[in-house]
UniProtKB/TrEMBL annotation:
Family: Belongs to the bacterial sugar transferase family.
Domain of life, per lineage: Bacteria
Compartment(s): Membrane
Sequence intervals crossing the membrane: 60-80, 100-118, 139-156, 162-181, 334-355
Topology of the protein relative to the lipid bilayer: Multi-pass membrane protein
Residues in coiled coil: 381-408
Record region (Disordered): 1-20
Organism field: Microbacterium jejuense
Name this polypeptide is given: Sugar transferase
Keywords: Coiled coil, Membrane, Transferase, Transmembrane, Transmembrane helix
Domain Bacterial sugar transferase: 331-520
Database matches in NCBIfam families: EPS_sugtrans
Length: 527
């Protein structure tokens, strides 16, 4: 097995529903337990005598109830006022009329029940990824679909305006509420709280890689407290990390007791006997301690991974990526509608930037450059010119300096001397990319997709990197919202391939939201 990179955290957002993965083996960026029937009693606590998982779920339950009460009764007052409006019942129905106050109260109870049934407060989905939000939306739409069916069968006429307001309002406010709680949880996780205590088991190389990945991303909620490796060098640390070695792979139980770990993460099985993982799972305390496994494949998530039990073995099946006509049509429709709206709304900004570029430096307003897009075909990408007019003539000398600094493929320099003062501001806030909306309208680009490379970069690609051409290049993408120019070439490729392998419409919305946040608060990674 090979360890999972930290970049996989972004792709883990698109994992499949919990009911399909309770007994599956997945990558540690989402570290879902293999065997954990009742995690509410987990022993790791952020404070004396209190389970952080149970406490956090209780907070979510209380805030969900408050939000839904506000939505249901607020919608009722907005639509009917303070009177005692009655739900209409058809003459041939067996039910009698009842007050909308009772209907709203029943709606709140049913909505809370639906959120619980779909495990939207489960510890497996909180903190990272989009699964929590997807479950909230799914539970809400399923509930209102059930209400519509029951109203039809029981001949009950519920005010359509009431339902049409309550459903979208409830979904939006619930998602915002969950997002706010998630920011609170992430802030505490950066302080080392509200996290699982993880004991890593495997080869020193795989343990070191996983430990570094989890250390870089404390928001995932996993704090490495020790490791068991074949050598069992007690009192030593894993090379390149500060993770203490707690013994050999035969000392997992004692190591867990010594470190107060509640999770065992097997990072590789090359040095473990065939039955060792099973023995570890049997030794864990049911409901209190959990086992996770890291498969040798990385950056694969979502519906492509299916666990199928065969002869008692949980075999992982990884399906090849499929892009149906419906998916392509849906993505193109979103691209076209959003880019047209963007051009109209941002037209004053586009005009102002064009005039600023024209008046502050010599050269054309737009910079046109040949890039490689879908199926490896060339296209002309548009940007506001942010460099001096002879920037291309200076490229080779600067690119040589960049290669000497370690980036052998993609040119990106933090303090590029060719950038104009106005261009530096535009680049920091990604304003120079706005003309690419016209590329999207023309069909050569998408709003979200892999980075469009230069022909000179493609000439240096390894064979597997060409898989990024399975999707249209995007104005923004997974790598842009995961560090932008601060990422290495390997991380950039991994994130682009991860997007292509695991595309979904939800992932596009998430990336667009993160792009907006990164553009408004670019930090030091934008240049």
């Amino acid at each position: 097995m090979t360890p999972l990179s930290a970049a996989a955290e972004e792709t883990a957002d698109f994992s499949r529903p919990q009911h399909e993965q309770d007994n599956s083996i997945i990558a540690p960026a989402r570290l879902v337990p293999v065997a954990s029937p009742d995690d509410d009693r987990a022993p790791h606590r952020h404070g004396p005598g209190q389970s952080w998982r149970r406490a956090y779920a209780a907070r979510l339950w209380g805030s969900d109830l408050f939000v839904l009460a506000w939505v249901a009764f607020g919608t009722q007052l907005l639509w009917f006022g303070f009177g005692n409006a009655q739900v209409a019942i058809r003459e041939d129905a067996r039910l009698s009329e009842f007050s909308y106050w009772a209907f709203s109260a029943g709606l709140i109870v049913a909505w809370m029940w639906a959120l619980s049934l779909i495990d939207s407060r489960d510890y497996r989905v909180i903190g990272t990824g989009t699964t929590e939000y997807i479950r909230v939306v799914r539970a809400s739409f399923s509930l209102f679909g059930a209400i519509a069916i029951l109203a039809f069968l029981l001949r009950v006429d519920v005010a359509r305006g009431y339902l049409l307001i309550a459903l979208p309002l409830g979904v939006v406010v619930l998602v915002i509420e969950r997002w706010l709680w998630r920011q609170w949880l992430i802030a505490h996780r950066w302080l080392g709280e509200y996290s699982a205590r993880v004991l890593l088991v495997g080869s020193e190389e795989s343990v070191a890689s996983i430990a570094r990945d989890l250390h870089r991303l404390p928001s995932a909620g996993y704090r490495v407290v020790g490791a068991c490796v074949p050598s069992g060098r007690i009192a030593a640390t894993i090379p390149g990390t500060d993770v203490p070695v707690m013994g050999s792979i035969d000392n997992v139980e004692r190591a867990m007791a010594a470190t107060h770990a509640d999770t065992v993460a097997v990072t590789s099985t090359d040095d473990l006997p065939p039955s060792k993982v099973k023995q570890i799972s049997w030794s864990l305390e049911t409901g209190h301690q959990h086992l996770v496994l890291a498969p040798s494949i990385i950056d694969i998530a979502g519906p492509r991974i299916q666990t199928r039990p065969v002869a008692g073995l949980p075999l992982i099946h990884v399906e090849t990526p499929k892009f149906s006509r419906g998916q392509r049509f849906l993505k193109r429709t979103l691209d076209l509608a959003a880019s047209l709206a963007g051009v109209v709304i941002l037209s004053p900004v586009l005009i102002f930037l064009a005039m600023t570029v024209r008046l502050t430096s010599q050269g054309p307003v737009l910079f046109r450059q040949t890039r490689i897009g879908l199926r490896g075909e060339e296209f002309t990408m548009l940007k506001f010119r942010s460099m001096v007019e002879n920037a291309e003539d200076l490229l080779e000398q600067l690119a040589r300096q960049e290669r000497d600094s370690g980036n052998e493929v993609m040119f990106k320099m933090k303090n590029d001397p060719r950038v104009t003062p106005v261009g530096r501001v535009m680049r920091k806030f990604s304003l120079d990319e706005l003309p690419q909306l016209f590329n999207v309208i023309g069909g050569s680009m998408s709003l979200v997709g892999p980075r469009p490379p230069l022909p000179s970069e493609v000439a240096q690609y390894a064979d597997h990197v060409h898989r990024r051409f399975l999707a249209k290049p995007g104005i923004t993408g997974l790598w842009q919202v995961s560090g932008r120019s601060s990422l290495s070439w390997e991380d950039t490729v991994r994130l682009d391939l991860s997007y292509v392998e695991n595309w979904s419409l939800v992932s596009d919305f998430v990336i667009l939201a993160k792009t907006a946040r990164a553009a408004l608060s670019p930090g030091d990674s934008a240049h």
